Amino acid sequence: MDQKTRNEAFNKFIKILFNNDNWKERAFAAQNLGQLKEGRAINILFKALKSEKDDVVINRIIEAMGEIGDPKATMPIIEFLKVELEKPEEDQDKTRLFIIIESLMKIGDKRALEHLGILLDSCHSDIRALTLEAFECIDPQWKLRIKSN
């Protein structure tokens, strides 16, 4: 895809994300923005994340930020992690937690480790396992760093 076509697609998906009433279309647009892997989309996706009400679209935006892989997305995603972690564990959205962990793992920003650490004690073995995988992916030396501290 040449740059002109990429720009046209980029602008089309942004327009859909902000202006379409259909949540499926907005979710699809967010997913496609992630597949374009354009770093310039992070601020736009963050803006959409702050105003979006539909859970599926929010999840797709978080996934898109992870697909892009820009560390600028780390802290906005962590804000959603904090919201989930404030809830009692039985009320937490497990799907969103998985999406958050996977997105942070794709970004690979070590700032995420401090916030993901609480999930290492989750009573859900699948969340613990994915969190451990994220730690290994983001910082393979994390266990040594903890021991030295």
Textual characterization of the structure:
The protein has 9 helices and no strands. The protein has a single domain (3-148), classed as Alpha Horseshoe (Leucine-rich Repeat Variant), CATH 1.25.10.10. The protein has helices at 3-19, 23-36, 41-51, 55-68, 74-86, 94-107, 111-116, 125-138, 142-148. By secondary structure, the protein is mostly helical.
Key phrases:
149 residues; mainly alpha; Leucine-rich Repeat Variant; 9 helices; globular
Summed up, the domain count is 1
Radius of gyration: 16 Å
Multimer state? single chain
Number of beta strands: 0
CATH-assigned fold name: Leucine-rich Repeat Variant
What is the element layout, followed by pairings?
Elements: H1 3-19, H2 23-36, H3 41-51, H4 55-68, H5 74-86, H6 94-107, H7 111-116, H8 125-138, H9 142-148
State the gist of this model.
The protein has about 150 residues and is mostly helical. It contains 9 helices and no strands.
